Amino acid sequence: MCVIELSLEIIISILIILSSILSLIAAIGLIRLPDTYTRAHAAGIGNTLGITIMMLALSLYFTYFSSVNLLPRIILALVFIFLTAPIANHLITRSAYHIGVPLTKKHKIDELYPVKKEEIQALRAERLQREVREEEDYEKVIQLTQLVDAMRDKRLLQHEQEEEEAFQAEIKTPLSPTEELNDDDDDNTN
Protein backbone atom coordinates (compact mmCIF):
# COMPACT_ATOMS: atom_id res chain seq x y z
CA MET A 1 0.00 0.00 0.00
CA CYS A 2 1.28 3.43 -0.95
CA VAL A 3 1.82 6.23 1.56
CA ILE A 4 -0.65 8.49 -0.29
CA GLU A 5 -3.36 5.82 -0.21
CA LEU A 6 -2.74 5.19 3.47
CA SER A 7 -2.89 8.90 4.31
CA LEU A 8 -6.10 9.27 2.26
CA GLU A 9 -7.67 6.35 4.10
CA ILE A 10 -6.72 7.93 7.42
CA ILE A 11 -8.16 11.29 6.36
CA ILE A 12 -11.37 9.63 5.14
CA SER A 13 -11.65 7.67 8.39
CA ILE A 14 -11.15 10.83 10.46
CA LEU A 15 -13.82 12.63 8.44
CA ILE A 16 -16.28 9.75 8.90
CA ILE A 17 -15.60 9.64 12.65
CA LEU A 18 -15.99 13.44 12.90
CA SER A 19 -19.26 13.24 10.98
CA SER A 20 -20.52 10.51 13.28
CA ILE A 21 -19.56 12.55 16.35
CA LEU A 22 -21.43 15.60 15.03
CA SER A 23 -24.52 13.51 14.30
CA LEU A 24 -24.28 12.01 17.79
CA ILE A 25 -24.04 15.50 19.32
CA ALA A 26 -27.13 16.52 17.34
CA ALA A 27 -28.98 13.45 18.63
CA ILE A 28 -27.94 14.21 22.22
CA GLY A 29 -29.07 17.81 21.69
CA LEU A 30 -32.48 16.58 20.63
CA ILE A 31 -32.81 14.67 23.88
CA ARG A 32 -31.15 17.02 26.37
CA LEU A 33 -32.04 20.55 25.30
CA PRO A 34 -35.01 22.15 27.07
CA ASP A 35 -37.38 23.36 24.37
CA THR A 36 -38.40 22.88 20.76
CA TYR A 37 -36.43 25.83 19.47
CA THR A 38 -33.05 24.84 20.88
CA ARG A 39 -33.65 21.22 19.86
CA ALA A 40 -34.39 22.24 16.30
CA HIS A 41 -31.26 24.40 16.30
CA ALA A 42 -29.08 21.53 17.50
CA ALA A 43 -30.55 19.12 14.97
CA GLY A 44 -30.26 21.56 12.09
CA ILE A 45 -26.68 22.62 12.71
CA GLY A 46 -25.34 19.23 13.80
CA ASN A 47 -26.88 17.20 11.02
CA THR A 48 -26.10 19.70 8.27
CA LEU A 49 -22.45 19.87 9.27
CA GLY A 50 -22.31 16.10 9.85
CA ILE A 51 -23.77 15.32 6.44
CA THR A 52 -21.41 17.82 4.79
CA ILE A 53 -18.35 16.17 6.32
CA MET A 54 -19.69 12.70 5.43
CA MET A 55 -20.18 13.83 1.81
CA LEU A 56 -16.63 15.18 1.76
CA ALA A 57 -15.31 11.80 2.93
CA LEU A 58 -17.48 10.06 0.34
CA SER A 59 -16.20 12.26 -2.47
CA LEU A 60 -12.57 11.66 -1.43
CA TYR A 61 -13.12 7.92 -1.32
CA PHE A 62 -14.82 7.65 -4.70
CA THR A 63 -12.41 10.09 -6.35
CA TYR A 64 -9.26 8.19 -5.39
CA PHE A 65 -10.32 4.57 -4.82
CA SER A 66 -13.04 3.98 -7.39
CA SER A 67 -13.61 4.53 -11.07
CA VAL A 68 -17.10 5.88 -10.40
CA ASN A 69 -17.30 9.68 -10.57
CA LEU A 70 -19.85 10.76 -7.98
CA LEU A 71 -18.47 14.25 -7.44
CA PRO A 72 -21.19 16.11 -9.43
CA ARG A 73 -23.92 14.20 -7.62
CA ILE A 74 -22.32 14.84 -4.24
CA ILE A 75 -22.01 18.55 -4.99
CA LEU A 76 -25.65 18.63 -6.07
CA ALA A 77 -26.68 16.84 -2.86
CA LEU A 78 -24.67 19.32 -0.77
CA VAL A 79 -26.27 22.29 -2.52
CA PHE A 80 -29.69 20.74 -1.91
CA ILE A 81 -28.90 20.16 1.77
CA PHE A 82 -27.52 23.67 2.27
CA LEU A 83 -30.62 25.18 0.66
CA THR A 84 -33.31 23.07 2.29
CA ALA A 85 -32.06 22.29 5.80
CA PRO A 86 -31.88 25.89 7.13
CA ILE A 87 -35.18 26.83 5.51
CA ALA A 88 -36.93 23.76 6.90
CA ASN A 89 -35.44 24.37 10.34
CA HIS A 90 -36.58 27.99 10.29
CA LEU A 91 -40.10 27.09 9.14
CA ILE A 92 -40.47 24.40 11.78
CA THR A 93 -39.44 26.72 14.61
CA ARG A 94 -41.55 29.57 13.24
CA SER A 95 -44.58 27.29 13.02
CA ALA A 96 -43.96 26.08 16.56
CA TYR A 97 -43.92 29.68 17.75
CA HIS A 98 -47.10 30.60 15.91
CA ILE A 99 -49.07 27.65 17.25
CA GLY A 100 -48.00 28.58 20.76
CA VAL A 101 -45.26 26.15 21.76
CA PRO A 102 -43.87 27.77 24.93
CA LEU A 103 -40.31 28.97 25.40
CA THR A 104 -38.29 27.74 28.37
CA LYS A 105 -38.34 29.61 31.66
CA LYS A 106 -34.78 30.77 30.98
CA HIS A 107 -36.03 33.07 28.23
CA LYS A 108 -36.96 36.24 30.06
CA ILE A 109 -38.06 38.20 27.00
CA ASP A 110 -40.10 36.99 24.07
CA GLU A 111 -38.67 39.18 21.33
CA LEU A 112 -41.18 38.02 18.74
CA TYR A 113 -44.33 38.73 20.80
CA PRO A 114 -44.85 42.36 19.65
CA VAL A 115 -44.20 41.32 16.08
CA LYS A 116 -46.64 38.46 16.40
CA LYS A 117 -49.36 40.70 17.82
CA GLU A 118 -48.88 43.30 15.07
CA GLU A 119 -48.76 40.62 12.38
CA ILE A 120 -52.01 39.09 13.61
CA GLN A 121 -53.75 42.47 13.62
CA ALA A 122 -52.43 43.24 10.13
CA LEU A 123 -53.55 39.85 8.85
CA ARG A 124 -57.03 40.31 10.32
CA ALA A 125 -57.37 43.75 8.74
CA GLU A 126 -56.13 42.42 5.40
CA ARG A 127 -58.55 39.48 5.54
CA LEU A 128 -61.45 41.81 6.32
CA GLN A 129 -60.54 44.07 3.39
CA ARG A 130 -60.26 41.07 1.09
CA GLU A 131 -63.68 39.78 2.19
CA VAL A 132 -65.24 43.20 1.53
CA ARG A 133 -63.62 43.35 -1.93
CA GLU A 134 -64.77 39.81 -2.72
CA GLU A 135 -68.32 40.66 -1.65
CA GLU A 136 -68.30 43.80 -3.82
CA ASP A 137 -66.86 41.84 -6.73
CA TYR A 138 -69.52 39.16 -6.28
CA GLU A 139 -72.28 41.77 -6.38
CA LYS A 140 -70.78 43.28 -9.55
CA VAL A 141 -70.61 39.86 -11.17
CA ILE A 142 -74.27 39.23 -10.33
CA GLN A 143 -75.26 42.62 -11.79
CA LEU A 144 -73.25 41.98 -14.95
CA THR A 145 -74.76 38.51 -15.30
CA GLN A 146 -78.26 39.94 -14.98
CA LEU A 147 -77.45 42.63 -17.55
CA VAL A 148 -76.06 40.08 -20.00
CA ASP A 149 -79.10 37.84 -19.49
CA ALA A 150 -81.47 40.78 -20.13
CA MET A 151 -79.58 41.75 -23.29
CA ARG A 152 -79.62 38.15 -24.51
CA ASP A 153 -83.36 37.83 -23.84
CA LYS A 154 -84.01 41.12 -25.64
CA ARG A 155 -81.94 39.99 -28.63
CA LEU A 156 -83.73 36.61 -28.72
CA LEU A 157 -87.09 38.37 -28.63
CA GLN A 158 -86.04 40.67 -31.47
CA HIS A 159 -84.80 37.71 -33.47
CA GLU A 160 -88.08 35.82 -32.94
CA GLN A 161 -90.07 38.91 -33.98
CA GLU A 162 -87.95 39.32 -37.11
CA GLU A 163 -88.46 35.66 -38.01
CA GLU A 164 -92.21 35.97 -37.41
CA GLU A 165 -92.40 39.10 -39.57
CA ALA A 166 -90.42 37.41 -42.33
CA PHE A 167 -92.69 34.37 -42.15
CA GLN A 168 -95.84 36.54 -42.24
CA ALA A 169 -94.45 38.51 -45.18
CA GLU A 170 -93.72 35.27 -47.01
CA ILE A 171 -97.27 33.99 -46.44
CA LYS A 172 -98.88 37.24 -47.64
CA THR A 173 -96.78 37.49 -50.79
CA PRO A 174 -98.52 35.80 -53.74
CA LEU A 175 -96.42 33.47 -55.82
CA SER A 176 -95.64 34.42 -59.40
CA PRO A 177 -96.72 31.97 -62.15
CA THR A 178 -93.15 30.77 -62.68
CA GLU A 179 -92.71 30.05 -58.98
CA GLU A 180 -95.99 28.09 -58.99
CA LEU A 181 -94.72 26.01 -61.90
CA ASN A 182 -91.45 25.35 -60.10
CA ASP A 183 -93.36 24.30 -56.99
CA ASP A 184 -95.54 21.96 -59.08
CA ASP A 185 -92.44 20.42 -60.69
CA ASP A 186 -90.93 19.83 -57.27
CA ASP A 187 -94.12 18.10 -56.13
CA ASN A 188 -94.13 15.83 -59.22
CA THR A 189 -90.52 14.75 -58.77
CA ASN A 190 -91.18 13.44 -55.31
Automatic annotation (TrEMBL):
Region of interest (Disordered), ranges: 161-190
Topology term for the membrane: Multi-pass membrane protein
Keyword annotations from UniProtKB, A to Z: Antiport, Membrane, Transmembrane, Transmembrane helix, Transport
Pfam families: PhaG_MnhG_YufB
Localization terms from the record: Membrane
Major location (coarse): membrane
Biased composition (Acidic residues): 180-190
A molecular function GO annotation: sodium:proton antiporter activity
InterPro entries: PhaG_MnhG_YufB
TM spans (from-to): 6-31, 43-64, 70-88
Protein transport among keywords: no
GO CC terms, sorted: membrane
Family: Belongs to the CPA3 antiporters (TC 2.A.63) subunit G family.
Protein name in the entry: Cation:proton antiporter
Organism: Brochothrix thermosphacta (Microbacterium thermosphactum)
